[in-house]
Amino acid sequence: AGVASAFGAGGVDDWAVELVSDDGGAEVADRVRTLRATCYCNIAQCLLRMPSPDAAKVARRACDLALELQPESAKALYRRALAWEVSGAPEDLQAAARDLARAGELEPADRAVAAALSRVRSALRARG
């Protein structure tokens, strides 16, 4: 079965997240957007704890969905970067570095972001 089948064809089965209605005006819509983005970030965090490349791919998709709702989410960028880092492929490490650099701009005091960016840059240098 595996992670991908549990979450649809490489995506996130978000039927429960979509149950939250944004009916009720702009303020409610903003709160619902924030709640949904938080749910997607939490889904990604859970998936990142699974030692599986498939889980990392689904975690990236969950972060993509969070970023569609909140493009300036440092947490979603950070978690997506961690998911990119799993493969170790140079192009994925470059994507991770871009996400981490942006997360660092948004949250300059976040030590976890700075440490991850340092780690990813070191991995890129090691791969030449």
Mean pLDDT: 87
Indicate the structural class: mainly alpha
Main sheet attributes: strand count, strand direction, barrel closure: none
Low-confidence stretches: 1-6
Quantity of strands, as a count: 0
Counting H and I runs of at least 4 residues, what is the number of helices? Answer: 7
For the termini, the CA-CA separation is 37 Å
Shape by Cα distribution:
globular
Please trace the helix and strand order, writing H or E for each element.
HHHHHHH
Supply Rg: 15 Å
Strand content: under 5%
Helix content class: over 70%
How do the helices and strands line up, and which of them pair or pack?
Elements: H1 2-6, H2 15-18, H3 26-48, H4 53-69, H5 74-87, H6 90-106, H7 111-126
Structural features, described:
The chain is mostly helical and 128 residues long. The chain has 7 helices and no strands. Helix 3 packs antiparallel against helix 4 (53-69), helix 3 runs parallel beside helix 5 (74-87) and helix 5 (74-87) runs antiparallel to helix 6. It starts with a helix and ends with a helix.
